[in-house]
Specification:
- This protein is mainly alpha-helical and about 300 residues long.
- It has 3 domains: about 140 residues, no CATH class; about 50 residues, no CATH class; about 110 residues, no CATH class.
- Helices cover about 65% and strands about 5% of the residues.
- The chain has a 3-stranded antiparallel beta sheet, with helices on both faces.
- It is globular, with a radius of gyration of 22 Å.
- The mean pLDDT is about 90.
């Protein structure tokens, strides 16, 4: 990676999110994360609009398909009818996704940045309208990642029979989060501290929400002193506690190594850590408001 070129291109970048470049690419390249993931299209700047466009085009195509297909319904058994309809609708959605995403300027810029920084990318289908791109710097880990993703696919397939109407959307999309072996392996691959991986596993084993636990931890810690930002070194990460030394060490190391790439990038990264912390602070403030409201209600009784 040519640090001067990266710094120059970073300052000029106006197509993709700089947060994406730092947290999902540079942190992997400088050794803080062994692997990073990007969800497409939701992690792109235009992700929401792109998803809405895909859905609108899909609805139009499905209506057209159902109108053409209706005359053949009597020739098929109910089971074959359902199977054929589902398969064809999935194919329609995949085609629309491909047409909207793979020629999109932002997606192409994302691929370009991966090459500039020196990362390998593997893309997996979460749903016909959602992909996950895994980015990593070490080619020797490719087989390890592919094996883990195969294991993930097996978990998804086997989990479908246990889904109910009450199953949370997060689990419908990511049932692997309930599998201890997968969580441990992907956590280590991503570079999360072992103590934080264990805290996540403990949450899932008890049926608790890791994000809620992280919010409560932040709320409790902030009563004495506002937690430092270093433990919140990457987004979508919940430290085992706000003052987790291992997580803080990752934050400090990342900041120092990014300083060597470019001081401006390092300063942006520090603000990103502050933003990550702010998301927990916001949830903690909401929790405080809920507690006050419930106390008032109880006092009226």
């Amino acid at each position: 990676m040519d640090k001067k070129s990266v710094a120059k291109l970073y300052q000029e970048e106006d197509i993709i999110s700089k947060k994406l470049i730092i947290e999902n690419m540079l942190l992997s390249k400088i050794g803080i994360k062994g692997c990073s993931s990007i969800t497409i299209p939701s992690d792109l700047k235009q992700g929401k609009e792109m998803a809405e466009r895909i859905n609108q085009q899909y609805q139009e195509k499905v209506t057209e398909y159902e109108n053409k297909f209706s005359w053949r319904k009597l020739a098929l058994s109910p089971r074959k009818l359902v199977e054929k309809a589902i398969k064809h609708k999935q194919q329609i959605l995949k085609k629309i996704f491909n047409e909207n995403v793979y020629a999109n300027e932002e997606y192409l810029r994302l691929i370009s940045w991966g090459r500039i920084i020196g990362l390998i990318g593997i893309e997996y289908e979460i749903r016909p309208s959602i992909r996950e791109m895994l980015l990593f710097p070490d080619p020797e880990r490719k087989e390890e990642i592919e094996r883990l993703m195969q294991f993930r696919a097996i978990i998804k397939k086997d989990s479908k029979d246990s889904f109910t109407e009450k199953t949370p959307v997060q689990i419908l999309l990511y049932p692997e989060e309930l599998n201890p072996r997968y969580v441990e392996e992907i956590g280590k691959l991503t570079g999360y501290p072992e103590c934080c991986i264990n805290a996540f596993l403990n949450d899932r084993a008890k049926g608790d929400n890791p994000l809620m636990r992280g919010t409560i931890d932040y709320y409790s810690a902030a009563k004495t002193k506002k937690p430092e930002l270093w433990a919140y070194y990457t987004a979508d990460f919940v430290p085992c506690r706000p003052d987790c030394k291992a997580a803080q060490d990752n934050g400090h190391k990342a900041y120092q190594r990014l300083q060597e790439v470019d001081p401006g990038i390092a300063e942006d990264y520090q603000q990103m850590m502050a933003d990550n912390r702010a998301s927990f602070e916001s949830q903690a403030e909401k929790l405080q408001s809920d507690i006050v409201r419930m106390q008032k209600q109880n006092n009226k009784k």
